[in-house]
Amino acid sequence: MSEMFWIPRPLLSGALRAGPADFVGPHGIVHGRLDPEVREPNFVECVDLDEVHSYVAEWTNLVERSLEVNVFLEPSFALPAARHIPDAAQPEFLLVWESGAVDARGRLVGLWPLVFSRSVFGGAAKTWVHEFSCSGSPLLDRHQAIEVIDLMFQWLKHRNSHLHGLSAIQLPKAGPAYGLLYDQAKARDLNFSLLCQFDRAALNARIVGVGARDFVSPKKKKELQRQFRRLRELGSVTFGVARDGSALRDQVEAFMALEAKGWKGRQNDAFLNDPALATFLRAMTRMMGLEGKCRLYWMALDGRMIAGNIVLISRDRAYFWKTTYDEDYRLVSPGVLLAMDMTDRLLQETQIAAADSCAIPDHPMIDHLWRGRIGIADVMISLDQDRAKRFDGGVQREKMRRSLRQRAKTLLARFRSG
Q1: Containing H/E element for 46?
Q2: Which residues of 284-300 are buried (b: 16+ CB within 10 A; e: fewer)?
Q3: What are the φ and ψ backbone dihedral angles of 295, each rounded to 5 degrees?
Q4: At what angle do helices 176-187 and 145-158 cross, to 10 degrees?
């Protein structure tokens, strides 16, 4: 069951300003004349996975109005992830609605899945992320984002006395959500602590008159041409893309089989190593494919896939989400050759403005092809100055936890490499 939290209008700050025409503010928030049928947000509820499923239509509508694109918070991705990823924490969904009776809500204007932690030291609300998501930005109606964030913070503060802060994970630093949260903290004199930050590769798909070969050095271009010739000597080489239906389903199965054959399979990290993960991938790609938001770019040798890339689409943004290749052909770089072909196709699509690599920092392949960068940050924001000491302790404990986890990863990597 959800808990309703009504907010009296005078408590809200940063109301939309009336004006002769809409204009876009510094964080991409639309200000200006309100539609007379649009009601201001004034209540919040927190629901579980079963209940949020009742609002998929409203959630989907919010995706198209959101201040910042985040494919990982679209229902067709987030719901299969929450149901099937075995190690992902179960989120609770913080929803903000326009005013109206409980049984006759207005539009959904905010959605943020959170995980609530408790300890003897208090706790923090944390953005729900998992190993298959690459952005934690909330969905905020771009016309009412200031009010929505204000409501969310008030709910966290007044309905959760044990919480000392909000941990916002995987925020694009140049994105409006990061700027809005920073402004919220400064306006309310709240602590805003940076936990970590890094850059990952990105593609500006609005560049005119260029192709993937223009992004690599002459030396690398010659090497790739040589590798492609060697591959063609082995058989018929074809490229393609599956977008929906049986074509997408068949290529997803081929992708999983190819991944399981390689190093991920040997380390039990492939989708097929875990039935729940395989179910997640099948369900997510089917649902997103039906919406025209999933593509699988492939490269085949004599009709058999030797490289595959799964790309997700949200509005004008592409996400290079997963990749695999046949290690039997590593000397001819099938993964790089497919990435080149995929890049050319993305550059030719007028509706795609940018592509996020979803890659780790300093990725050995895509960093040398896609030269743009997206800054990503994890931050913690206090909820109340009265809880400042608990917040400072929470920040230190979180930094210590991350340091220990990174050391453990380093030791495991050394062990696996022999």
Answers
A1: strand 41-47
A2: bbbbbbeeebbbbbbbb
A3: -135, 145
A4: 60
Among 383, 372, 349, which residue's Cα sits nearest to residue 172?
Answer: 372
Q: What φ, ψ does residue 191 adopt, rounded to 5°?
A: -70, 135
**What is the SS3 assignment for 204-262?**
ECCCCCCCHHHHCCHHHHHHHHHHHHHHHCCCCEEEEEECCHHHHHHHHHHHHHHHHHC
Using DSSP, state whether 88 is helix, strand or coil: coil
Measured CA to CA, the distance from residue 144 to residue 155 in angstroms comes to 17
The percent of residues in the chain predicted with pLDDT above 70, rounded, is 84
Phi/psi for 20 (5° steps) reads -70, -20
Helix (H) or strand (E) holding 378: strand 372-382
The long-range contacts involving 54-61, CB below 8 angstroms and separated by at least 24 positions, are 55/95, 55/108, 58/105, 58/107, 58/108, 59/108, 59/111, 59/139, 61/107, 61/108
SS3 131: coil
Q: Tokens in use for 295?
A: 């593509």
Q: Give the H or E element holding residue 76.
A: helix 75-84
What pLDDT score does 181 carry? 96
pLDDT tens digits, one per residue of 231-246: 999 999 999 999 999 9
| Kind of pairing between the strands at 163-172 and 123-127 | parallel
What structural domains does the chain harbor? 3-199+375-416 (3.40.630), 206-352 (3.40.630.30)
Beta carbons within 8 Å of 17's beta carbon, 6+ residues apart: 31, 32
Cβ count near 3 (within 10 Å): 10
| Structure-block tokens of residue 128 | 């729900």
- What is the pTM (predicted TM-score) of this model? 0.88
First to last CA, the chain: 51
Enter the DSSP assignment of 351. T
CA 82 to each of CA 55, 225, 396: distance values in angstroms, whole numbers, following the listed order: 15, 43, 29
Q: What is the pLDDT of residue 42?
A: 77
Output the CA torsion sign for 94, 98, 100, 106.
negative
Residue type, 236: S
Low-confidence winner among 180-189, 271-280, 294-303, 321-330 (lowest mean pLDDT): 180-189
Pairing of strands 41-47, 294-301: unpaired
Asked whether 121 and 390 are in contact (CB, 8 A), the reply is yes
